[in-house]
Amino acid sequence: MRRMLALLVSSILVTAVSCKKQPSAEDVTNPGVDDRSQTTQTSVGDNRAVKPSEQITTPSGSENLVAIPLVLPRPQFTGTAENLLATQNLDIKPEGWVQPPFMAPKGVVNVALNKPVTSSEPDPFSGQLKMITDGDKEATEGSYVELGPFSQWAQVDLGESHAIYAVVIWHYHKQARIYFDVAVQVADDPEFITGVTTLFNNDIDNSSGLGVGQDKNYVDDRNGLLVNAKGIKGRYVRCWSAGNNANDLNHYIEIEVYGTKQ
Fold it and tell me: For the domain 106-261, what is the CATH code?
């Protein structure tokens, strides 16, 4: 009787082992996979597990951003003159550096093109103020406006308030020069007395009376100076400078303002 019971138990055990699921090829290849977990592993910097509902998405609105239609003029010089490198607070770009695409909402255009220009110097030493927004930014002879010495400004009237995303300035890029105390301001007041926003200021000693600037000096080349306006609203754009490393005069080849009507 005992022998018969032993044989019966042995038969039951063999049957149970033979019914157990055998590992599949997929289980062998991915031994860590657990069908009970629905977590998706995504690298997000801290290597944490990210659930499908938490997948990283494009920031809201960024899918509508495009590069502004900025066309750079032809280069007129290469490198940076040695005597400029000693300039205090200088932002030195590598040789051959080109302004990367600047992204802004769709529909942004140069709203300063052919718009009226006024200045602290009503009668420039050379050139006409309207040349500052005529679309010609090449550094050819006679393509620039020359204002007097000391702190001077050129101002563009956009005609109505715009959302401004970028301001680009070319002073004089026929040779390597640094223009001092450069500032860019936006306002709806043509006199710039109230509601003024300063977008850029590298006047580190407040010699122009606009406040102490935190931005750096730069070599004015074909890239000009591109200032991120971050969608600020305004009708008037005023650009300041106070001479350059070559002489005390102030020059403007072109001012472009990229924005949209409000």
Answer: 2.60.120.260
Spatial distance between the Cα atoms of 181 and 45, rounded to a whole number of angstroms: 41
DSSP letter at 126 equals B
Query: Is residue 51's pLDDT more than 90?
Result: no
Q: Kindly give the pairing relationship between strand 90-91 and strand 217-218.
A: parallel
Hey, which bits of 96-182 come out as E strands? 103-105, 109-110, 117-119, 145-147, 152-170
Reading the block at residue 206, the tokens are 């407040």
Contact (Cβ atoms closer than 8 angstroms) between residue 191 and residue 221: no
User: What are the tens digits of pLDDT across the range 125-179?
Assistant: 999 999 999 999 999 988 999 999 999 999 999 999 999 999 999 999 998 899 9
Q: State pTM to two decimals.
A: 0.75
Beta bridge partners of 198: 185
Q: Tokens 């956009």, residue? A: 158
Whether residue 208 contacts residue 239, with contact meaning beta carbons closer than 8 Å, is answered with no
Would you list the DSSP string of 188-201?
A: SSTT--SS-EEEEE
- Identify whether the C-beta of residue 197 lies closer than 8 Å to the C-beta of residue 236: no
With contact defined as beta carbons under 8 Å apart, do 250 and 148 qualify? yes
Q: Which residues have C-beta within 8 Å of that of residue 153, sequence separation ≥ 6? A: 119, 120, 238, 239, 240, 241
Q: Residues 111, 158: contact at Cβ < 8 Å?
A: yes
Domain boundaries, the chain: 106-261
What is the C-alpha to C-alpha distance for residues 67 and 81, in angstroms, rounded to an integer? 31
Angle at 230 between CA 225 and CA 234, to 5 degrees: 90
Query: Cα 95–245–78 angle (5° rounding)?
Result: 20
The most distant pair of C-alpha atoms in the chain lies apart, rounded to whole Å, by 126
